[in-house]
Every structure is written in structure tokens, then in C-alpha cells.
Amino acid sequence: MKLGERIKAARKAVKMTQAELAKKVGLATGTIQQYELGKRQPRYEQIANIADTLGVKAYTLIWGDGEHETAPWVDVLAGQLQQIGSGLLLSKERNAGHIEFPDGYLDVTEEQMKKLSQSLNDFTRYAINDLRKKNPHDFWPKAGDPNAKTPGE
Fold first, then answer.
1. Looking at the whole model, is its pTM more than 0.85?
2. What percent of the chain has pLDDT over 90?
3. What are the DSSP calls for 29-59, one per residue?
């Protein structure tokens, strides 16, 4: 079963029309029709919105039940890409994804997406630790530490 078929099945399971789904997610009815027919590929953010509206996980719509259901890195990566003006499209058929740029798309494998997500996590971890080192006066230990101060001290 492909993405569009899974969207349709999930929509029908909750007894919702294409028009009702479109209205709830802020898209045109024709767009939902094109997704369900496989004529158009939604961005990850749109898939996540549709999934939330239908009460299913985005991973279930993308890959079906099972194998990728617990891949939180997908949400993280999609959010990070969205913050910089890019998007993430996923494809089970090719076991790949596409990073959307303003002027085109970059095909990436699932492994490349995982590495990118991990690199972004590593950079964030480094950046926060660096910030903590540069601002020790703004850091306060958790309760239970005998030398703990309270916020604002």
C-alpha cells in the first residue's frame, strides 16, 4: 500500500470525507484527492498534520504499520529543516527522502537522513554546552545539590 492509499484508508476509518479533511488541515479538497491518488507527494509537515487530524502516527501513513513507527529522528529533522526554510519529503518505495530547497530537491537515503539528524543533534549539544561554559554565572544546579542556588540569585 502506498502513502496515498494509507491516507485514504485512515480517512475512511474515521468516516471523514476528503472535503472535511481538507478543511481541517487547511488544504484544498483537490490536493487531498491528488495525495490519495498518488499524483502529488505531500511534504512531511503536511503528512504530520493529516496524521494528527486522522488520529494516526505520521510514520504509519508514510511507511505503514511497523518498521519505522518509532523513528523520532524524522520529526526532529523535518522540524530543523523547516526552521531554515527547507522541507522533507519521504518515500517508502525508494527507501529514500528528498530535502526540499527553494530551487529544487536533493535525493537522500534514509541513512543520510539519520546521519544529518545526528549531526544536527551533536551540534546542538555542543552549542548548548559551549553556552553553559561561557555563562557559568547563569547556570544553577538542580535541587538536592548542597551548593544549589535558586533561579535569579
1. no
2. 29
3. HHHHHHHHHTSS---HHHHHHHHHHHTS-HH
